[in-house]
Design goal:
- The protein is an all-alpha fold and about 325 residues long.
- The chain has one domain: ABC transporter involved in vitamin B12 uptake, BtuC (Orthogonal Bundle).
- Helices cover about 70% and strands about 0% of the residues.
- The protein has 13 helices and two strands.
- It has helices at about 5-30, 40-60, 60-85, 90-115, 135-140, 145-155, 160-175, 180-190, 190-195, 200-225, 240-250, 255-270, 285-305; strands at about 275, 280-285.
- It has a two-stranded antiparallel ribbon.
- Strand 1 (about 275) and strand 2 (about 280-285) form a beta hairpin.
- Helix 1 (about 5-30) packs across helix 11, helix 2 packs across helix 10 (about 200-225) and helix 7 runs antiparallel to helix 12.
- The radius of gyration is 20 Å and the shape is globular.
- It comes from Litoreibacter ascidiaceicola.
- It is found in: Cell membrane.
- It is a multi-pass membrane protein.
- Keywords: Cell membrane, Membrane, Transmembrane, Transmembrane helix.
């Protein structure tokens, strides 16, 4: 494997990790506030559909992105209503959202485009184009760093850079602001937050809304950045992989970046090498395609007990009279 091949795999890994990173940070905000969200998959899926459908209909990828975020926020509102206001089971609400999104995207897609639940291919301004970073071409000749900058970091779409910026921004919001302190406190001890006169319901709805926006960006990137149309069930379990990455990252933003990049790297390797010859054994294509999902199971089996979630996670808060 030469250096150019490694650069191409890293470039692909960064693209593939982007929707996972958005979804992982979305889950981080939600779960830090005590709301478990299995519905990341469904929110990403419905955002992907509406962003592609709107971008195709209007010819504007920006309107498509806004439509995707809006659709994701609607499902986030439903999840918030079920789990915060009505104090329902958060896991069941999340699973219901996944089923709802899976059925709605196909139903509306069939009615709208009559292409078996898909959208037509996006072209031109209807999808995100790559952005060349400053001095990428000039620095390409510099040993080691030059190709990394010009081949791996440069040339990605707008949302890839937004996802990377969201990591330090999430860290700052959660660990350096009053809002972040209150949000984390709501996930650990909501009664203490309520005693201080701060609205537990308001903070949890804010976290769920942020989760909706980030899932919307993840879905919009899938359909208009990574791909060029919506395809039935195109999220392909990424919402669940993001949840596994969140547990692996122990609910911390920087660890989330490393965990999602690891998943992206495995998927990039499986795409690059459909079957991998190790000399003494050849790994079949089915095994290579299953690699990210195998890692998900391994992480969940090995880290669930060691990673401690927010103490009030999954529990509806009932205000004392």
């Amino acid at each position: 494997m030469d250096y150019l091949t490694i650069l191409q795999i890293l470039d692909s890994a960064l693209r593939l990790a982007t929707p996972l990173l958005f979804a992982c940070l979305a889950g981080l905000f939600s779960e830090r506030a005590g709301i478990f969200d299995i519905g990341l998959e469904g929110k990403m899926l419905i955002a992907a559909f509406f962003s592609a459908a709107t971008a195709y209909s209007t010819g504007s990828v920006w309107l498509g992105m806004l439509a995707g975020v809006a659709a994701s926020l609607v499902l986030s509102g439903i999840h918030g209503l079920a789990s915060i206001t009505f104090r329902g089971n958060q896991l069941i609400s999340g699973v219901a959202i996944n089923f709802l999104a899976s059925g709605l995207t196909v139903l509306i897609g069939l009615s709208w485009f009559k292409l078996g639940g898909q959208t037509p291919a996006l072209q031109g301004d209807a999808r995100f184009q790559g952005i060349d970073l400053p001095f990428a071409e000039a620095l390409s000749g510099v040993p080691v760093f030059g190709p990394l900058y010009s081949e791996v970091l440069s040339g990605h779409t707008f949302l890839v850079y937004i996802a990377l910026l969201c990591v330090p921004l999430t860290w700052y919001v959660l660990f350096r602001t009053r809002f972040g302190l209150r949000l984390r406190a709501v996930g650990e001890n909501p009664a203490a937050v309520d005693t201080a006169g701060i609205s537990v319901v308001g903070l949890r709805y804010a976290a769920v809304a942020i989760c909706g926006v980030l899932c919307g960006l993840a879905g919009a990137y899938l359909a208009t950045g990574l791909g060029a149309s919506f395809v039935k069930e195109m999220t392909a379990g990424r919402g669940y992989i993001a949840l596994a990455a969140l547990i692996f990252a122990k609910w911390r933003p920087w660890y989330a970046l490393y965990a999602t990049f690891l998943f992206g790297l495995l998927e990039a390797i499986s795409n690059r090498y459909p079957s991998l010859d190790l000399g003494f054994i050849t790994l079949p294509s089915q095994f290579m395609q299953a690699l990210p999902y195998i890692l998900t199971v391994v992480i969940l089996a090995g880290f669930v007990g060691k990673a401690t979630p927010p103490r009030a996670g999954g529990e509806p808060y009932v205000k004392e009279r």
